[in-house]
Design goal:
Number of strands: 12
Mean pLDDT: 91
Number of helices: 6
Distance between the termini: 82 Å
Bound molecules: fe (ii) ion
Length: 295
């Protein structure tokens, strides 16, 4: 019978430890590649149906495309943005809403400020929808230069709604689109924003920051708020919460359709990234298609 090598009992333990180390190193490397190089560019269309109280039959099936948080020009190429817009255009939306952060306020990794406003036309010129393309500015647009961003948007199909609305009419049915400026960086004037909308007209309100939903006063009907701002958290624990969110309400307004105290809000993950954290993990970019249906 062969003699047992006295060292042989130790060898598997060392090998197992090495295997675990290599496994963890491989997992970390794969996560970094996924988070910094792959997932940020893997934009997909997310479609959902939203019941709206009092929606007229003429607006049943109305398609609202939502694209948010471009954060141009950092870490997003013209081709990437045009591709994201193409996902929306393929659905033939009735209207396109852009709830802010067209630009990014700082350079890579948040290190550089006082940047010039980029020319937005090469990125956004393909936007088109039957009833038009409307937006509101986000906090990054104000931090960069709100007037400069507005000037740059004049070269695109985007019309900014700042404390104003438009009423869409189809026969005797109507739907209002309301634009409110950023909760953190501008003055919201709800009287002006909702001025002239008949009480029985359903309304969708664009606001960059979902927190407005929580702080919205009584007196103005909102059937749906459309927001971005959170980016879904950008980095998430697999099947778990986001690590960091720019909201006072934790993960409540992280993404998707949320019931607020007075009205519902749809929070889109958006297509870009904040330059202070140019990574997405378990939180891919999203172009959203909301199909309105009668409640
Ligand atoms: Fe943003």
């Amino acid at each position: 019978m062969p003699e047992k090598n006295p060292d042989s009992a130790k060898q598997p333990r060392v090998s197992r430890r090495k295997l675990i180390k290599w496994g963890l190193a491989g997992l970390a490397s794969a996560s970094l590649v996924e988070g910094f190089l792959l997932e940020p560019h893997r934009v997909r269309l997310h479609s959902t149906r939203i019941p709206i109280d009092g929606l007229g039959a003429a607006f049943a099936g109305y398609k609202v495309a939502v694209i948010s948080d471009f954060h141009i020009p950092h870490f997003v190429s013209e081709g990437y943005i045009r591709g994201a817009i193409g996902l929306a255009l393929a659905e033939k939306p009735d209207i396109i809403l852009l709830p802010g952060d067209f630009c990014n306020s700082h350079g890579a990794f948040g290190m550089k400020a006082d940047l010039p406003v980029p020319d937005l036309a090469p990125y956004l010129s393909s936007l088109a929808a039957t009833d038009g393309v409307y937006g509101v500015l986000g906090n990054h647009d104000y931090w960069l230069d709100a007037k400069g961003v507005m000037d740059s948007l004049t070269g695109t199909p985007v019309k900014v709604l700042r404390n104003e609305n438009l009423i869409l009419r189809r026969g005797s049915d109507s739907l209002a689109i309301v634009g409110t400026p950023d909760l953190w960086e501008d003055d919201i004037d709800l009287a002006a924003a909702f001025d002239g909308i008949p009480a029985d007209t359903p309304r969708i309100m664009m606001q960059h920051n979902p927190d407005l939903c929580e702080e919205f006063p009584e007196g103005h009907r909102v059937d749906l708020q459309v927001s971005g701002h959170t980016h879904g958290g950008q980095v998430r624990i697999p099947f778990g919460p986001a690590l960091l969110l720019p909201t006072k309400y934790g993960n409540k307004y992280r993404e998707g359709l949320v019931d607020g105290p007075r009205h519902r809000v749809y929070v889109t993950r958006g297509v870009g990234m904040s330059s202070t954290l140019p990574v997405r993990f378990c939180c891919p970019p999203e172009v959203t298609l909301l199909e309105l249906i009668q409640a």
